[in-house]
Amino acid sequence: MTYVVTDNCIKCKYMDCVEVCPVDCFYEGENMLVIHPDECIDCGVCEPECPAEAIKSDAEPGLEQWLKVNADMAKSWPNITQKKDPPSDAKEFDGVSGKYEKFFSSNPGEGD
Ligand code: SF4
Ligand code: SF4
């Protein structure tokens, strides 16, 4: 089991989650973060910290797509352990549906 970052992180990317992770297993893309499923110790600490409610346990049904996105992107995106400024328009995109289809980018972020 692991926790995964899902759709609503895209273009919100508040980064509150990275500060609390005891094993630093968040990785940064251009407009979202992912969790490395092999490094996550399933502690659940990050889940309530996410203002966008984008972090879910993969024990929840229907998250197969997101488990794959997290596993795939964590291999190529840089590690991030410190919170930075979120995008200036993050609030406008919070709760928008279908963000993966419209805005997902496989480009890496800057990392720490
Ligand atoms: S706190 Fe939530 S929205 Fe922000 S980067 Fe982490 S998972 Fe994404
Ligand atoms: S569940 Fe724990 S180990 Fe996994 S990403 Fe969240 S804070 Fe890190």
Report what the structure shows.
The chain has 4 helices and 4 strands. It has 112 residues and is of the alpha+beta class. The chain has a single domain (3-84), classed as 2-Layer Sandwich (Alpha-Beta Plaits), CATH 3.30.70.20. The model has no long low-confidence stretch (mean pLDDT 97). The protein starts with a strand and ends in a 9-residue tail after the last helix. The structure holds iron/sulfur cluster (2 copies). Residues 5, 9, 12-17, 33, 50, 52, 54-55 line the site of one iron/sulfur cluster (SF4). One iron/sulfur cluster binds next to helix 1.
The strand count comes to 4
Rg, nearest Å: 12 Å
What is the approximate shape?
globular
Distinct small-molecule ligands in the complex: iron/sulfur cluster
Helical fraction: 10-25%
CATH architecture: 2-Layer Sandwich
Total DSSP helices: 4
The CATH topology comes to Alpha-Beta Plaits
Function: Ferredoxins are iron-sulfur proteins that transfer electrons in a wide variety of metabolic reactions.
Cofactor: [4Fe-4S] cluster; [3Fe-4S] cluster
InterPro entries: 4Fe4S_Fe-S-bd (IPR017896), 4Fe4S_Fe_S_CS (IPR017900), 7Fe_ferredoxin (IPR000813), Fd_C (IPR022569), FdxA (IPR054829), RnfB_subfamily (IPR050294)
Organism: Microvirga puerhi
Descriptors for this entry?
single chain, 112 residues, alpha+beta, Alpha-Beta Plaits, two-stranded antiparallel ribbon, binds iron/sulfur cluster, iron, 7Fe_ferredoxin, 4Fe4S_Fe-S-bd, electron transport, 3Fe-4S
What is this structure's SSE topology?
Elements: E1 3-5, H1 16-20, E2 26-28, E3 33-35, E4 55-57, H2 64-74, H3 90-93, H4 99-103
Antiparallel strand pairs: 1-4, 2-3
Bound molecules: iron/sulfur cluster (2 copies).
Organism: Microvirga puerhi
Domain 4Fe-4S ferredoxin-type: 1-30, 31-60
InterPro entries: 4Fe4S_Fe-S-bd, 4Fe4S_Fe_S_CS, 7Fe_ferredoxin, Fd_C, FdxA, RnfB_subfamily
